[in-house]
Structures are given as structure tokens and as C-alpha cells.
Amino acid sequence: MTAESNASFEIDTPLVFTAGTVGEPGHRVFYVQAQGDGQVVTLKLEKQQVGALAEYLSGLLADLPTINEAHVPTLLDLVGPVVPEWTVGTLAVAWDELNDRMVLVAEELLTEEEVEAAAAPATARFRVTREQVAGFVERARVLVAGGRPPCPLCGGPLDPEGHACPRLN
To answer: How confident is the model at residue 2 (pLDDT cuts 50, 70, 90)?
Structure first.
């Protein structure tokens, strides 16, 4: 790691687990955030990571007992100021059947120099309820779909300034 080592986090009983963005479509930055155990942990991700995580979690939920929809959180705004602890490189998810929790483990993205120096990445572990996962999935899907509209020919994002579609060449 750099001279200022990034911190690792563990929140066993988050009050809130959510995704959010800052910025305009085309220039948005995506985050996940967990609030609980007296702390707020914000991590930066790519849009594709948020989308893939939501779809994977949705598939896991489909294989588990039905949740109580009345307990799915709806107040899922990011708590500001939104300052990420670090950028996520990898994500892992496990099901803790005994405690009826999904365990999300995020690992920090390291630079090439940090990897060569055998730096250990920071980690964040969040143990969330199935209802929190359902709320996260719904919110993440809305955020991912709320980007720039796709080009009808190539599927690439349309920019407000125009789009150089490769299919028109």
C-alpha cells in the first residue's frame, strides 16, 4: 500500500446497506455504503460492479426463503459527505445460514506498484439481512438503468454531445 495504509472495516449489523451515485449520467461515480456499529463506510465501485453485484445477490435471494416485503428498507440515500475509503477491486459474497445473513466482502483495488511491493489490500466485511439485500438490489438496478440511454444500433451509451457509432462505419 501507499505510505498511508487504507483501513479495513467490519460491520456485523448494518442499519443501512445501499448503493448510490454522485454526478450526472455519463460522469457518475458509483458507491456502496454501510452504516452501523457507529461508523459509515463508503467504497467506490464501477457501474458494472454494482450491476453485477445486484444481479448475483438477486439470484441468491431467489434460492432462499421468501422475505417479509414490509421489512425491505426504502430509505437508502447515501449519507454525506460521500468520501470513499478506497476503490473496490474484488467482491465476494457468502451466505451465513446460521445467522440468516449475507456476508459481502470487498477487497481494495491495488496499483501495480502496490502489488509488486506485496502490499495487502484493505477489506470491508458487511453482514446484511436478506431484506437489506432486497432493498440494495432494487436500488442498484434503478441506479444502473438510470444512466445514458443505449444506442439502438451498437448498444453503447449515447452522450449528450453525440455518439460515434461503430456500426455506421
So the answer is: very low
